[in-house]
Specification:
alpha+beta, 5 strands, HIT family, subunit A, single chain, 29% helix, five-stranded antiparallel sheet, 3 helices
């Protein structure tokens, strides 16, 4: 088992929610996943969906847990979209410090969006548009990395 799945030296807030030792406002639970209302509500209805097993990020998901997680994300996203005012929805998962991951337990944010809410600005300024040759070179790098993958290590 990868160290990213093993017990963490510091208590994991989300594992405590799964264990029932920390409070949470649950919205969904099945055998492999749990969904609860996020503490921060920039727009009402911000929900987190997590695997029950401690996995630091999406790179360490096994197939069954990944499938269950995406099924729950889909269901919760539909429910949030029906339950709260929105002009759209954002889903996101951050990996590591540079991406501002705050809790080292995989979690998918489901966030109702309103026009002009200025949440989750992706690019500080418009990025350059890559030409086809550049995109093809980038695709080769990813295909090569996929071909050399032996396990779920990043």
């Amino acid at each position: 088992m990868s160290s990213h799945r093993a017990s963490q030296p510091d208590p994991c807030a989300f594992c405590a929610i799964v264990a029932g030792t920390a409070p949470a406002s649950l919205v969904h639970e099945d055998a492999l996943t749990l969904a609860f209302v996020d503490l921060r509500q920039a727009n009402p209805g911000h929900v987190l969906v997590i695997p029950k097993v401690h996995v630091s990020d999406v790179r360490y998901l096994d197939e069954a847990t990944g499938a269950a997680l995406m099924h729950s994300v889909s269901r919760v996203t539909r429910a949030v979209g029906r339950a709260f005012p929105n002009n759209g929805l954002s889903l996101w998962h951050s990996i590591g410090e540079a991406a501002f991951q705050e809790v080292p337990h995989l979690h998918i944010h489901v966030h109702p969006r309103l026009i002009g809410d200025n949440l989750l600005r992706i690019y500080p300024e418009p990025p350059t548009i890559a030409d086809q040759a550049t995109r093809d070179r980038l695709a080769i790098r990813v295909r090569d990395a996929l071909a050399s993958e032996r396990d779920n290590t990043p």
